Amino acid sequence: MSAFLIVDTQIENATTYEQYKKLAKPIAEKFGGVYRARGGHLDILETDLWSPSRIVIIEFPDRQAALAFVDSEEYAPVKPLRQNNAQCTLFIVDGN
Question: Which ranges in the chain belong to alpha helices (H)?
Fold first, then answer.
């Protein structure tokens, strides 16, 4: 069953965040990740629980692959670029 890593990002330092994007994408792809959305236009229809800023959706073959990406040695030095230059909510949800 596929799994989706979903990130809502409020970028605080666009220059450094661009570096993060360039480094993170090939690592996600190594773990089978396919970017399905990456900061496209949002039509926000309801906001009772949360108001998203910038959404990234990466589809992985399964939950284990998504978790392996997030916890990988390759991603470990790249992750702080995101954490130090943006506020994020990140979660994994199972697909159908």
Answer: 14-30, 63-70, 79-83
Measured CA distances, 13 to 36, 45, 71 (Å)? 23, 28, 24
Distance from C-alpha of 39 to C-alpha of 44, rounded to nearest angstrom? 13
Tens of pLDDT, residue by residue over 53-79, are 999 999 999 999 999 999 999 999 999
Cα dist. 16→2, 41, 57, 61 in Å? 30, 22, 20, 29
Catalogue all structural domains in the chain, each as residue range(s) with its CATH number: 11-42+62-96 (3.30.70.100)
Structure tokens at 87: 């506020």
**Helix, strand, coil abundance in the chain, percent, nearest 5:** 30, 30, 40
pTM for this entry: 0.94
24 CB-near residues (< 8 Å, 6+ apart): 75, 78, 82
Residues 54, 71: contact at Cβ < 8 Å?
no
